[in-house]
Amino acid sequence: MYLINATYFNGPWRDQFDPSNTAPGPFHRADGSTVSVSMMEKTENVVHPTYQAKQFRAVDIAYGDSLYSMTILLPHEDASVQSVVDSLDAKTWSRVTEGLAPQSLSRLKMPRFTLRYEKTLNDVLKDLGMGVAFTGRANFRDIADTSLAIDKVKHKTFLRVDEEGTEASAATSVGIRVTSAPPSFVVDRPFVVAIREHHSGTILFLGTVMDPTAG
């Protein structure tokens, strides 16, 4: 018997990227090499919640009716993705989500990318005490009359990020005191990406993008 858990998320942006602004741009990989990727860009009325931490900057990009959003953690140039991942505990994540505040940006630039992840969970589940379910002593009488045992448990994840989205049905005005030119947020090196639901705080996806062309 096979147990397969597949997760798919394809949410429309609240404020879309204009495909005509997408152009090739450099993405600097962790090994120091550079690859050309399709970079999406917004330069008009760009207001997104951001957060500044010791090792990274964060930007929050809303989907649809803002119940869901993508949060990108971009390590500073002197930090690595792994160091950011290692620092992400519940307390740090809470500081990020609670500290996000609207900021005017001169531009938001990020790559199109696709993430695919597949993992067999047999060993993980056995370590958690489910070993008997993979043997002849397994008891699945509630779902079948014949003797069954789990042969393989797989988890698959697919995430695609591109320009598609729907424009907001209502405009939000944010007052910001301008003291200098607005900063830009350019995602041109490896980063952490999370998709979260706002009411419960549930993280639907959490991963790293090391090379947008590798998906």
From TrEMBL:
One protein family per Pfam: Serpin
GO CC list: extracellular space
Domain of life: Bacteria
GO MF annotation list: serine-type endopeptidase inhibitor activity
Domain Serpin: start-end pairs: 1-212
Record family assignment: Belongs to the serpin family.
Protein name: Serine protease inhibitor
Species per Swiss-Prot/TrEMBL record: Salinibacter ruber
